[in-house]
């Protein structure tokens, strides 16, 4: 059932504030360039402008369809920001106007993320990247500073190395007073063998800062805990893997935030980060929570079948070869009879699986030393019972969901999720982007989850207030100090949030 009430009326009827954890600004490019010049000099500003012109997003429009296919340049976003509602377009660009309209949207407090700034932490030039991230952070601290009681901006934190990330995080928090950090959760790294053959530009892997990372990021996670920062991932996956259509933006776009979020969450889980840093919260934004429900269920199911003890049920040395041979003889007919014995071309050693014949140890029915050394995929996560997965996954992760996403209801489906748990969705409006044709409709769309009986009013409170407070206030109990939601947030944190600040 669609409500006839507007967002402001819905907000008045609620008994709690509404916090938007993921709105977007549209950067005014000349203003950003001013800050790049002031922070890093005119030469760096010129290099930055040249880098933007050389991007694949720009190149797609500059070359022929044939060249796009030859280079596999993915169709970039287009018609991506408000135009028909001029007021909305200006609202995404002007902090004072955004602040003026928050009551109209039904938002008490909002966290603003970038648009152009999405790309800055992933800039491949090692000199341009830190310079423009610092300039961006100085800009948002300046232009949003007067509105801190209603709005806080996210800092752009590059993560190509832990040292780079720590340096910019300290600057953003200690010198600029910023309270939210958007990190690059997928770092493009060259494949060494490709670099040696001169094809590094076309062959890369994605480092997700956890499992199998190029660097040990524990010092950065420690710094986040020390500074009271919940790292938030808002990383795109367009242009990678299967998302490289040269003609169809929707093919590349749909689900890409979820794909990037899943890679990051799995890397933190299997890399043991959520085990070693049990009090560190993470925000994984704009991908919804449906994928996380599926991942949680998969982690539990796979642990039950492939934990360090259970996986030994599949040890090749456990096969009774004599019995298997008898069964082949009795039921295989002429086609299979005797194929486990005899000639060098027979399948005896590999038990019928020709692909295994490259490994002599498996051929002889023994596990390889390489597999035995890495037997328990869940070891780093410290899982000794299935319920531990909740502490490593359900507890630290908060999932950004857009207002019109019905899959948000899955996070509250205690009858479906393992152990009757709930995940932690947080409302991310995405104002400023094409997902929101009319900014005044966001809260109304979100509350339709209640009107359609998909979630309860209590669930809606968690989605739009309690979970956002815990995400950031759980790391820094002073996060909402001086804001219009200070007292309401303190009531949430008094009994639950204080302990989350400690390492």
Determine the number of helices (DSSP H or I, runs of at least 4 residues): 23
CATH architecture level-2 label of the largest domain: Alpha-Beta Barrel
CATH homologous superfamily label of the largest domain: Metal-dependent hydrolases
Largest sheet: 8 strands, parallel
What does this structure look like?
By secondary structure, this protein is of the alpha/beta class. The chain is 44% helix and 9% strand. It has 2 domains: 7-305 and 399-501, TIM Barrel (Alpha-Beta Barrel), CATH 3.20.20; 312-373, no CATH class. It has 23 helices and 10 strands. The protein has an 8-stranded parallel beta sheet, sandwiched between helices. Helix 2 (29-40) crosses helix 8 (128-144), helix 9 (162-175) runs parallel beside helix 11 and helix 22 (457-473) crosses helix 23 (486-496). The two termini are 45 Å apart. The relative contact order is 0.13. Residues 342-349, 352-361 and 497-503 have low confidence and may be disordered.
């Amino acid at each position: 059932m669609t409500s006839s009430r507007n967002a402001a009326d819905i907000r008045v009827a609620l008994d709690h504030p509404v916090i938007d954890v993921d709105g977007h600004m549209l950067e005014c490019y000349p203003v950003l360039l001013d800050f790049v010049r002031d922070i890093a000099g005119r030469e760096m500003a010129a290099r930055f402008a040249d880098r933007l012109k050389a991007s694949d997003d720009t190149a797609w429009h500059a070359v022929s369809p044939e060249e796009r296919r030859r280079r596999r340049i993915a169709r970039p976003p287009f018609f991506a920001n408000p135009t028909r509602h001029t007021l909305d377009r200006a609202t995404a660009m002007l902090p004072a106007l955004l602040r003026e309209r928050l009551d109209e949207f039904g938002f008490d407090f909002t966290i603003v993320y970038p648009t152009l700034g999405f790309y800055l932490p992933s800039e491949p030039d090692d000199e341009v990247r830190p310079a423009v991230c610092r300039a961006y952070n100085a800009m948002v601290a300046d232009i949003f500073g007067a509105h801190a009681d209603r709005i806080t901006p996210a800092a752009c934190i590059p993560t190509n190395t832990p040292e780079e990330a720590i340096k910019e995080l300290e600057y953003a928090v200690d010198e600029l007073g910023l309270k939210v950090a958007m990190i690059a959760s997928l770092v493009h790294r060259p494949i060494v063998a490709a670099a040696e053959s001169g094809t590094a530009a076309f062959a890369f892997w994605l480092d997700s800062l956890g499992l199998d990372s190029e660097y040990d990021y524990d010092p950065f996670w420690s710094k986040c805990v020390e500074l009271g920062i919940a790292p938030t991932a808002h990383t795109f996956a367009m242009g990678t893997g299967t998302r490289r259509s040269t003609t169809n933006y929707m093919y590349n776009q749909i689900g890409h935030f979820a794909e990037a979020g899943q890679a990051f969450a799995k890397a933190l889980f299997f890399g043991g980060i959520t085990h070693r840093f049990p009090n560190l919260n993470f925000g994984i934004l704009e991908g919804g929570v449906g994928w996380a429900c599926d991942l949680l269920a998969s982690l539990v199911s796979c642990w039950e079948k492939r934990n360090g003890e259970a996986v030994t049920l599949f040890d090749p040395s456990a096969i009774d070869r004599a019995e298997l041979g008898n069964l082949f003889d009795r039921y295989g007919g002429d086609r299979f009879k005797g194929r486990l014995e005899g000639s060098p071309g027979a399948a005896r050693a590999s038990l019928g699986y020709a692909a295994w014949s490259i490994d002599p140890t498996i051929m002889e029915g023994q596990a390889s030393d390489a597999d035995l050394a890495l037997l328990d995929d869940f070891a780093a996560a410290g899982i000794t019972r299935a319920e531990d997965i909740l502490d490593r996954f359900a507890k630290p992760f908060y999932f950004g969901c857009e207002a019109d996403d019905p899959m948000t209801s899955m996070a509250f489906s205690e009858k479906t999720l393992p152990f009757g748990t709930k995940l932690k969705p947080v409302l991310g409006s995405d104002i400023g982007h094409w997902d929101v044709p009319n900014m005044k409709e966001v809260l109304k769309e979100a509350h339709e989850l209640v009107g359609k009986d998909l979630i309860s009013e209590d669930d809606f409170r968690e989605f739009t207030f309690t979970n956002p407070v815990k995400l950031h206030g759980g790391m820094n109990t002073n996060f909402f100090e001086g804001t219009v939601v200070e007292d309401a947030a303190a009531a949430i944190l008094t009994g639950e949030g204080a302990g989350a600040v400690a390492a």
